[in-house]
């Protein structure tokens, strides 16, 4: 069996359990040999056909790469090459999401990350997180796959694009009353977290986002002028 530039063979054999299986070997010039085992002859032939199609469409190399790299390797390269381009406030929050994906899928090959796999993890997240938080976890995973496609040629398809985001409720904006604000600050002072009171005071005074506050350094603060300069805001503009 052969396609354009492809040498494919199917060998009928038995596995350790005594069951009949079909081992496929596909060779293509200048590419690693591809192998796979199937319990049905029809599935073996289908895989050969899909591989031939991918070669004709120029997608063979990404498929081979997707079989060679794990999600953990994707996260490592993304953290090394892409994360430094992002705002410090974004890095602070996204590193936790990356580590969560590493724990859940790190050992799996990229070729095995399908929409059903992602849906299962999405539903797992939804048990203990708000819908908006779940969507942010999906967003970072999707961006990693997009980079792997466009810049590294590790994949030719983004499985996250076939997974529905959770519907986020539209919350009503409400400001704290003076009494509520006093109660909040008292609770913050009583907290075991020594930084909570300061962070909340800054949030109430500046209306800065959580990521902006947590990513702040002394370089952002001018004590003499009594101002805070946010360099990397969500809309990309500097803000006092």
From TrEMBL:
Name the domain of life: Bacteria
Record Gene3D superfamilies:
1.10.150.130, Intergrase catalytic core
Q: Which GO biological process categories is it annotated with?
A: DNA integration; DNA recombination
Family annotation (SUPFAM superfamilies): DNA breaking-rejoining enzymes
Query: Does this UniProt record's set of keywords contain Cell inner membrane?
Result: no
- Looking at the record, the residues that make up the Tyr recombinase domain are 171-240
The Core-binding (CB) domain extends over 69-149
One Pfam family hit: Phage_integrase
Gene Ontology MF terms: DNA binding
Q: Which keywords has UniProt assigned to this entry?
A: DNA integration, DNA recombination, DNA-binding
- What is the annotated signal peptide range for this record? none
Q: Which family does it belong to?
A: Belongs to the 'phage' integrase family.
Please state what the protein is called: Tyr recombinase domain-containing protein
Organism placement in taxonomy: Bacteria, Pseudomonadati, Nitrospinota/Tectimicrobiota group, Candidatus Tectimicrobiota, Candidatus Entotheonellia
